[in-house]
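# step 3/5: fold
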Amino acid sequence: MMTLMDRAQERMPNLPLLVNVVARRVRQLNGGQRPMVKPENQFTSNFELALREVAEGKLAAETAVTAAQQPSAAESLLSL
């Protein structure tokens, strides 16, 4: 049986990114924002809610690739 963390990692395989997204979402939930998933019970933690939001595809992250991170055309050809 897959854990909630495993399901979240399937949606967001980059673990550092997943940790940052969940941490930011927990801060938002702690600040009073409403969850995008229904809590299972009154004791459901904001951490669990944030992980469920990722696992269910309700929460995602966009990453931007800067020009410095992209290889130039010449570098791309050299790697062939």
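# step 4/5: annotate
The chain is about 50% helix and 0% strand.
# step 5/5: archive (pending)
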